[in-house]
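Contributing new records

If you add data, match the layout below exactly. Sequence lines come first and carry their own label; structure lines follow with theirs. Keep one chain per record. Anything else will be rejected by the validation script.
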Amino acid sequence: MLKLLLAACAIALTAPAAWAACATDAEIAAFVDSYTAKTPAQALSPGGSMADALCTQAKIAVALEPHMGPVIGYKAGLTSKPAQERFGATEPVRGLLYQNMMLQDGATLDAPWGAIPMVEADLVLVVADAGLNSAATPEEALAHISAIRPFIELPDLTLAKDQPFTPETITAMGVGTRLGVLSEPVPVEDTAEMARMLEEMTVTMRDAAGGVLVQAPGRAVLGNPVNAALWLRSKGVEFKPGDLISVGSFGPLFPPQAGKGGVSVTYEGLPGNPVVQVFFKE
């Protein structure tokens, strides 16, 4: 993965006309300093193309590896129409997942964990084999996904208030990757049945007092959460065994204070109606 990211940066440096807004090394260093200090950062690649933004994202991944560990997968962001409309997007955006961001179910962490920390109800797909790269439908894709994992993402919107939030700047900064909480895997056995369950399940995020923050059907994410993997593949991502795929939020993002000490997410309709939870210390 690191070699691929470095190759992307090399291409950027040899094609200045096409990658005119790929962030400089100095800009990357300043962003990483802000990120590690958990202070609001300046936007990268403002006014640039999506190719510029992906070049910047690749350079950030290399710079963050000493802090966040290696890249272990991908995330899709802005996977709902309301989210796309809010940021002027016409399709999702693509980010990365890091080894050191992953916490276990029931974790307790200090808030704030980032410059602009948020909470979202998400889901992770675990790639079984590279056959996913040729799948065309959710059912076909699930034949190459070994498990579904309940996931609360704890993203960081990162950018200072006066900075532009566009699909390109969101992509450049890595789509807000910071932390996430993973629960136990739910094996994929009957692919047709799992495709149906993922579409029809009800995803509910509750605060620590039991109040409902989000309730949405599985189809709220691109018609079926597995479509997030197919969308990433359509944008050139090549999956390998063991990769994790964050499908995106099933509803609005909330600041940690809305959790009143923590949140839980239930996936009613998946086998066993699994739950994942996280607790916050103020």
